[in-house]
Queue: 3 jobs
Job 1
Amino acid sequence: MTTTKNPRSAGFDPGRRAFLKAAGLTMGAGAAVVSAGRIPGPLSAADAHAAAASGPFESHYSVCDMCFNRCGLIARVKNGRVVKLDPNPHFTKSRGMLCARGQAGIAQLYDPDRLKHPLLRQGARGEGKWKRISWTEAMDILVERLGEIGEKYTRCGMLFSVGADMQSQFVHRFAEAYGSFNITSHESLCLISLNRAYLDTFGEVPFADVLNSRYVIMAGANRFEALVTPDSMDMVEAMASGAKLVVLDPRYTKTAAMAHEWWPIRPGTDMAFMLAMCHVIINERLYDDAWVAEKTFGLDELREHVRDCTPQWAAAETGIPGPDIARIARELAAAAPASLIYPGRRTSDYENSTQIRRSTAIVNALLANWDRPGGLLAARQVGLKGVPIHAPWYDDNPDDRVDAHMAPLMFEEEGSFVHTRDAVIAGEPYPVKGWFVFKTNPMQTAPDRARTMKMIEAMEFMAVADIQMSDTAWMADLVLPMPSYLERKDPCQALQGSSACACVVQRDPVVPAMYESRPIFEVMKELAGRMDLGEYFDFTIEEYRAKQLADLPGAAEVLERDGVYYNPSKVYGIYDNIGYRTRSGKIELMNQRYPQAGLDPLPVYTPPASPPQGTFRMVVGRNALVTQGSTTNNALLHELMPSNSLWMHPDAAARLGLSDGMEVRVKSAVGEGTLALKVTEAIREDTVYTDTGFGSISKGLSNVYGNGLAIAAVLESRVDAVTGNAAMHETFVTVTKAGGVS
Ligand SMILES: Nc1nc2c(c(=O)[nH]1)N[C@H]1C(S)=C(S)[C@@H](COP(=O)(O)OP(=O)(O)OC[C@H]3O[C@@H](n4cnc5c(=O)[nH]c(N)nc54)[C@H](O)[C@@H]3O)O[C@H]1N2
Ligand SMILES: Nc1nc2c(c(=O)[nH]1)N[C@H]1C(S)=C(S)[C@@H](COP(=O)(O)OP(=O)(O)OC[C@H]3O[C@@H](n4cnc5c(=O)[nH]c(N)nc54)[C@H](O)[C@@H]3O)O[C@H]1N2
Ligand code: SF4
Ligand SMILES: [Mo]
């Protein structure tokens, strides 16, 4: 065992490399059973980390927060310090797994780059001159500036951007009480076009019963790197018992590598593939006649719509041979209803993403897999109660969100970050001059960073609450240090994972909050109190939890005992006696609402633009060692993933005279940057790719400041036409040798 070369990781135990690598995707199968009250140790995973686990330690349940999956964990605490994070064997959603990022949570807790006290900007925005201030001063500033902006521009002059967190609801609650309906989240950079597509087909957004499926097509999803629990583990399990996996991806991802078939589809053409699936299934009558007739609406119109969408036609669009498309359709239908087109998750990719995902939903409908084993599952009953707020009415507020009607079928609660940004810059339909950001980092995760900076220039006041000096915090006027997930008490949260669970989790501090960090609940509560809105926060977290659990007697005790509470609710057949929440009350192959919104009721295929001569389409995606744009600075993960590089096919590289490892300049219509070239056959010749979360402008992130390319600087700001979801695969770039003449 060697000590680290990176002095920033000096506080960690030797052997962590091997331990992290081993931990990549292993399950805590040998984990000891946890009994009431005390948790015995060590677990088998801990054996790999014997140095840390030896001797007496305390064990505490918690829930991982290194990504949104919220896997159950047990924190081992020795002499007041967290020394190891292990999976909670009671936690079926993650099948007893804690991934590499999850285990690296320790390095987040003890990161020397943590924000330690409130900071007030001194120099120009983004210059990096800060003054340490007290929480009293920070709260005074918040009260004063929010009051001022509300007076001057109405309450909707404040924008709240809120990421995924068990305390996010308190920022929403505050925004509502304060009186702004301008709230955005990461979701309009993530999955709202997917949600729209499935809501408008089935009336709800499904879970995929991967575990019991016999045939899965993953198109534009990468479950063995972009981990979604339990789907990632269930796919492995299903394949071990004979299920077939077909992957369509312009990149040879880890998922593609594990699949039975990988097709490097031409980017943006998935709808052609899906319409051809429909063509074959309908023409060859491979569907369940009675089921489809009873449950769906618009089969005749769909039949007509896909009449010419033959496999040969789709072959010319997708680059996948026609006979293979026909064969895959037949195999998929033969395995139905225990077969599915995986709905995916991130659909912030194309300008017609909602319609692309509608086409996947329609194939699923023809497979008759809704609400049945191996198919798409409806939401189960968890039983956690909401704590409603009756927000005050402000007469002078505008009628609607600042981005209202900028796309035909937006989600009112989310809006669209990209459209909101446009509206803020334009100052139309009304001025928005204040920005409160909690746990989201649009400087890295929204396309077109220069435009985000322009939006920030338009703001009179900007506050960011984060655990580290993110690129977004770096641009703020006021920075608020937050405790990490291992240091705070969070409300209960409902979680679902297909057939694995409908459950409730909560968090209690594993160690006391470090530095001067303060949970957002306390900040919002104090702010509300000081702004005469105290009645909306007249509870403690414990009281809030009790309200949430009111309909689940005994759940609080089970949560204490097991770290998770399960509701044994129905998994299949939920729709046996209810109608679908669509206009027709059926599964809408043909959408009844779309024509009024000026949209095609059936997905109409338009070929994507080909990259102009000398350019490449840039796509984004995931790496198992990085969460979006935020974990790249983590010392343990940084060791395994020190920078990003640009994937390019060898033939393309040869044509351009570029070679592996060379520093290259990537340039789009909106920005540019440099990084190392990775020449690889794992990508199509017309496409390039790089990982997110590098090339930071924040000097507070020692490992990623100026390291690699910030893909957000290069991505153009395009949107899905239906929802306003960001469309991040619509950028063409040139690639030249860095420093050379271009
Ligand atoms: N390790 C890790 N796990 C994560 C996350 C993380 O950051 N790190 N994030 C979580 C979150 S928030 C989300 S939303 C999910 C995202 O998980 P996924 O929905 O699986 O999304 P991506 O990983 O972005 O994968 C999209 C894939 O589509 C490919 N692609 C690009 N264009 C096309 C196309 O036109 N057609 C097809 N068929 N494929 C195309 C890309 O190469 C990429 O591999 O992952 C979650 N899990
Ligand atoms: N280029 C590119 N853009 C993308 C994506 C991509 O793959 N590539 N993915 C898209 C997708 S699917 C999504 S979901 C979005 C996600 O977009 P974001 O919501 O911006 O996600 P993160 O990058 O994870 O940023 C989370 C922020 O929260 C901070 N944080 C972490 N823990 C805590 C905590 O306990 N408290 C507080 N207050 N802050 C904390 C982190 O430091 C970080 O600044 O990005 C989207 N944008
Ligand atoms: S998938 Fe990994 S990072 Fe995400 S919650 Fe689970 S253990 Fe944590
Ligand atoms: Mo996401």
Job 2
Amino acid sequence: MDWKVPLADLNYDVEEEQAALAVLRSRWLTLGAVTQRFEQEFGRVVGSKHALAVSNATVALHLACRAVGLGPGDEVIAPSLSFVATTNAALYTGASVRFADIRGADDLTLAPQAIEAQITPRTRAIIVMHYGGYPCQMVEIMQIARRHGLAVIEDAAHAPGAWLNDPLGGAARHLGTWGDVGCFSFFSNKNLSTGEGGMLVTDRDDIAAQVRLMRSHGMTSLTWDRHQGHAYSYDVVELGYNYRIDEIHSALGLVQLEKLSAGNARRAAISRRYWQSLHDLSLGPRPLGLPFSHYADPAHVSASAAYHIFPILLPAALDRLAFIDRMRAEQIQTSIHYPPIHQFTYYRQRYPDVMLPFTEDIAAREVTLPLYPTMTDEQVSWVIEAVRRSLAG
Ligand SMILES: *Cc1c(COP(=O)(O)O)cnc(C)c1O
């Protein structure tokens, strides 16, 4: 399909090509000096003590779940309005998931009181997901976690470069650094893309040490250490995995990290234009929902989002597939974020009694519009006009 406006697009140019070529010519392809630099730079940007690069965000989440000690008999509270990796990662450890509902149509992140309502004596952790790169209510969520002695894992796949003010007077802190562990994705369509790739960040030395071991088979020394003459053999002290990243992906990540803040700023500008141009449709008897539109005026929020995706909520009676087809006829690609996890066959069989009124209503009406840094003003106009025509039928 030849889209006039695709849902997402890379902002790659000759810099990424040169970075990849430099790795090929260096003749060292996996976990080495380039990865170390990527980890240092990423940790510096988000302000975390430790940053560990891995193969993707799904394995970062798995390592996070293992590092906070999850296992059979434990329960984890998580959103259903997310990508399935968020909760799969917890299930890999043998733990069980309890789904919590979101705040509502203006904010699609977890509701703190819904989290608290799911706590049982077996609860060990909360996994939050910063939907679209907009922050969850981290101050309230961290208070709940502390009160009940729970670990907090942030699925920050949408949120590199986003931050949230600390209303208690502390400095603004990046998303991914509020809880015990934060996990980022560098999949092709994410704000920072390397094709496949991920990063786990933490301020906790114990978690960092364990993750460092587990991402490479629980081995006490690596091929890289031996290549450098630092070690001759190794022991295996943990049940680990091969969750390593390679140098080509890390090199792409370093270039992409340089582009992150300009890319996020362009995403913010496009989002503001969408909100302003679609505002009139959000009034009246059959309103179009515009989640997170309070971000249109930066003075109204104490955070800076990453603007990963642009969700709209169709009026309840409108046929979503017909709307998507009409957009497609205008060569504009849209998507759905997300089919709720608890409604997938595997999860329904495992958790048949989940009821999440906000998640179920909103997920049925959600459509995601194109949003990416290289999108032109003209393309944004096409999308806005196509939305107007497609809503009118
Ligand atoms: C993309 C994504 C993931 C998984 O990331 P991978 O790097 O593809 O494993 C997890 N959670 C959310 C919310 C995502 O959007």
Job 3
Amino acid sequence: MSSHLTADDLQPVAGGGLLHRRLLLKSGLMLATAAATGSVGVAPANASEDLASPSWMRMPGAPFSAYGNPSKHEARVMRAIGANKDLPGNGVSWTPLESLEGMITPSGLHFERHHNGVPEIGPAQHRLVVHGMVRQPLMFAVNDLLRYPMRSHLIFIECGGNSNAGWHEEPIQRPVGSFHGLISCSEWSGVPLAVLLDQAGIDPKATWVIAEGADAVVMNVSLPLAKLMDDAIVALYQNGERIRPENGYPMRLIIPGFEGVTNVKWLRRLQITDQPVMARNETAKYTELLPNGRARQFTFGIDAKSVITTPSPFQKMFGPNIYEIKGLAWSGRGRIAKVEVSADGGKSWAEAALQDPVLPRCFTRFRMPWSWDGSPAILKSRATDETGYVQPERDVLIKERGRNGYFHYNAIAAWSIDEDGAVSHVYA
Ligand SMILES: Nc1nc2c(c(=O)[nH]1)N[C@H]1C(S)=C(S)[C@@H](COP(=O)(O)O)O[C@H]1N2
Ligand SMILES: [Mo]
């Protein structure tokens, strides 16, 4: 493939001006922009003026720091907090997806979901107990676990309640992170649970594990033993450093591909049993009445989903030009196989470029070149995973799941762009 742009390259491959994804690999995309619009994206340089020494080059820089922080000029990149006034300690904070690039969520911006605040736990006092249908109940101190062989999972965690404003009658107008940002992607490292459970000696009749956290709400959930033996870990590290207090310090359960609530933070107990405990978080919550009168329960898995992060609501397009549409896709079932983008509200679609590496149960960054001519457009993204599961349109999801849904909203999101370049959330 030639690295230089030809006129053919600028022929749209789908409605609304979507261009072929291979263009992202070509030099000259910005030059094409200039030719198409008569304007250049960068200013011409004046070497003597532009290279004049700025003040910070005329004195020594700041001293070293023992622990780094983001630039003070980026201080507006924050988690939005949704606190519950009547139930202090119960609420969420959202990852600002619209302000981040790549696939990793910085630890300080990982979303939070707490049912009763963040416990202050001294690592020397914390204990993890494995008991129930085992040959020998065991107690693990933090220092014990730190000596075990470890493994890492680079995975997303998504709250089952993420994006649930999508069930509302009217499209909510919020930045994409404050709508879809109860999801984050980190490298989690720790001890494979199978190693610890094998050591305790599981009764062959056991089928469930009840996991409990050390927060004041004593959060517990029932989990299928087979999945825990397959790839779950007791994580002690997040993005290379010890887990942040709000994400479960000193240890949490990590269950790749399972909804957020199963990843019990501040993990203190694993009870091996042969039936679920029917805790609040699997009966009163996380159970949904369907149109046929039956209820969904133990819906642990996260289905494929995607969202366009740029352009997205509260961002602005600066006139007709060539743009990179970008976003995130993920699936709890495995790898993302493809992401399609539409600029005409779903009438036609073109395949986006997926950025390497494409890992199972992990954020996948997609990119799509777009020649926007300044007329109104409706952008959508649609993810397909390696099992063949395709992210549904909103009306399809509602038909299947009814209007009593609250969890697992994974419908295609639509952003409308008006002539002025303003972006808003629409149902289309
Ligand atoms: N002990 C405990 N574990 C917990 C929770 C909690 O409140 N207490 N919240 C759960 C829910 S609903 C989610 S979505 C995830 C959120 O993890 P995070 O706060 O690290 O993003 O933790 C889960 N584990
Ligand atoms: Mo959650």
